[in-house]
Amino acid sequence: MRHFEYFNKTDVQKIHAATLYVLEKVGVDFGYEPALKVLAKGGCKVEGERVFFLPKLVEAFVAKAPGQFTLYARNPEKNVVIGCENTAFAPCYGPAFVTDLDRGRRSSTLEDFNNFAKLSHASRNIDINGGILVEPNDVPMDKRAAEMLYGVMRYSDKPFMGSAIGKAGAQKTIAMSAIMLGVGEERLADKPPSITLQTARTPLGYDDRMLGAMMEYAKAGMAQVVSSLAIAGATAPVTMEGTLVIQNAEVLAGIVLTQMLREGAPVVFGGSSSAAAMRYGTLSAGAPEMVVNTAATAQMARFYSIPSRGGGALTDAKIPDAQAGMESMMSQMMASMAGVHFVLHSAGILEGYMTSSYEKFIMDDDICGMCKRIRRGETVNIEKLAVDLIEEVGPGGEYLTQMHTFQNFRKEFYAPVLEERGTYDAWETNGSLTLAQQANAKWKEILANFEAPDLPADVDRDLRKYIDQI
Fold first, then answer.
1. Which CATH number characterizes residue 83's domain?
2. Are 48 and 137 in a shared domain?
């Protein structure tokens, strides 16, 4: 399937040239002494916390990053390729609040986190679990990262997202991954089980927390998304082109650091920049400018031959309503059509990253499935063209009872998680339920019937022992 491309090749070259100029003449602040030492040793000019990158140096180190890599699940059947023609979906990430139709919006807990880990595991469309599905506010900060990691390892056997909470969070992820897999930490680079999000401090900076985690993961050969969230009109120029230059410079600077630490360390070129809602001075995650940035991010990543991150089922809506569906499908669909490889926030997000919704998770899961079906493309061959069948049935015939239909409809048609395709009378007879009400019943059904994948008792014991010692 061809990719949608927003800019032509000349435009891409102009954006690249502008980015190199900014990196060389303006520079990027790195607020972490160990990172400054690595960059200086690697050939960058360092003045205080400001780092300047020569164009040839940037291009040389970015070229060392792999064009694709694999995340290895505890269940090998669920390994995920990041790159090539594959699009991998990861769920909600980062919210401090949670909501559902029964209890409304509230501060999220560890129970909520584990529930979303279970829903992500049960999904047939979500490929990667974990991260900060919701913030477990009832867990002390020093144990929070470890408890989230444990929840994902206990309730899912898919690849997962690691902790980005500084050097310590990265070390916890590395240590617990080694316990889970029963290997030495030095072996994790052979088959990395996780990927972690690292986001620049826009404009043109990285803080010590992100850099501490980024360096630990890079040295260990663990995968990470090097990303930027620039806000056009607030933390970046109001034009999408200028915002893209800021984003591009931040991401390339971070990738250079990872490759200086370990050549070939797996990275994803990430972008989640959007526009400011100028009336309020806030980020708009559901703006069409976010979608423009998604397409541009995928295109720039292809230019550098690095896997991309962008999109997600993002919305500024406060409840799972028509606005939420409209904005989420717009964003998720563009990520699929533009050829994004890693799509974070693929299910559950409301209120521009602030809230995870149980009902919207189920609704977005269907969006993921629809996008995967569209992204799959078609194969034009004799069987698909079905000329012999068309000739046999002829004008005025029907195809519903044909064997060809029975043999192929399950693999040809997407079967939705939530289905409202019957007649009006049937819908009315069944209670006239809204999609959100159907989703409310569905998430409860999934959790009530959830069966955790097998985790050996000794591994479970060792993980809990590790957490208890923190």
1. 3.20.20.480
2. no
